[in-house]
Design brief:
Elements: E1 3-5, E2 12-14, E3 17-20, H1 27-33, H2 42-53, E4 59-62, H3 75-91, E5 94-98, E6 115-117, E7 122-124, E8 127-129, H4 138-141, E9 145-148, E10 153-158, E11 164-174, E12 189-192, E13 203-204, E14 228-231, E15 236-239
Parallel strand pairs: 3-4, 4-5, 5-6, 8-9, 9-12, 10-13
Antiparallel strand pairs: 1-2, 2-3, 7-8, 10-11, 11-12, 11-14, 14-15
């Protein structure tokens, strides 16, 4: 299976599959409770999926966190998620949703033709797909490449006067070994995909002393220092080890939180 990021869009092409993650539909309701009044961008995400799919992608894989609220659900999620996926089913022959940590009761929202995959993941043609908040199954880990979401990867850039900007990024690299105490075999390579919902901003992967999230990404199995980092426009930033910076002394800066971009 040929794995290629879509230029300018946080989506991965895998032959006839289009792979995305972290839609977080309903985030506007969450932001409204914090005092930000934003219009829904769910339709814009649909348009981006159509653009990324082009003429050849016939299958869609969503790597978790379809909804934003956890626990509970909002009126926005109940109103928008079913319609969103009904529209997607008009375009794609099949849709698989790998359950994420935000996807409580996701069965209530998705049309019957959408297949819900356990959080332990799925495998297609030697490629494993997980959300990333829990351990994958033995079968999924017996893959050539493991594709993960959950972490909302971004690179933090900081200038000389302390201003900082987070840019979504792809992180690609190798596992440190081919076996572990938990699994008989490990994948050779990994890909961490950016969050599809650009409202999320991203969590910096290049802050010294701040581990990635999830048991696989933060569990010492990945050779993160030698992993390569690419921006959405294809710019190669080189190895992650060469991008590391210290966290700011200002409270809350440089921490691995799910930052929101409200621009």
């Amino acid at each position: 299976m040929d794995l290629q990021p879509v230029h300018g869009i946080p989506a991965l092409r895998a032959d006839e599959h289009l792979v995305i993650g972290d839609l977080h539909i309903g985030i506007e309701s969450h932001m409204r409770s914090k005092g930000f009044h934003l219009t829904s961008r769910t339709d814009s995400m649909f348009d981006s999926i159509m653009e990324a799919a082009g003429d050849s992608a016939s299958r869609l894989i969503v790597l978790g966190d379809v909804k934003d609220s956890v626990p509970g659900s909002t009126k926005q999620e109940y109103a928008e998620i079913p319609v969103f996926f009904e529209r997607l089913l008009e375009r794609f022959d099949s849709i698989d949703v790998v359950r994420g940590n935000h996807d409580t009761n996701i069965e209530e929202f998705l049309p019957g033709h959408v297949r819900i995959v356990p959080a332990s993941g799925m495998k297609r043609e030697g490629i494993g797909f997980i959300h990333g908040h829990t351990w994958p199954s033995e079968d999924v880990m017996d893959s050539e490449t493991l594709v993960m979401a959950h972490d909302h990867p971004a690179v933090m850039f900081r200038d000389g006067v302390g201003r900082q900007v987070n840019e979504p990024c792809w992180v690609r690299g190798s596992f440190l070994d081919t076996s572990s105490d938990r699994y008989r075999t490990l994948p050779r390579r990994f890909i961490i995909i950016p969050a599809f919902n650009r409202m999320l901003g991203g969590s910096p992967v290049n802050i010294i002393g701040e581990p990635l999230l999830g048991p696989v990404m933060g569990g010492g199995l990945l050779d993160l220092g030698n992993a390569t980092v690419h921006l959405l426009d294809g710019i190669d930033l080189g190895r992650l080890s060469g991008l590391m910076i210290k966290g700011s002394d200002r409270p809350g800066w440089g921490k691995r939180i799910k930052t929101k971009n409200i621009e």
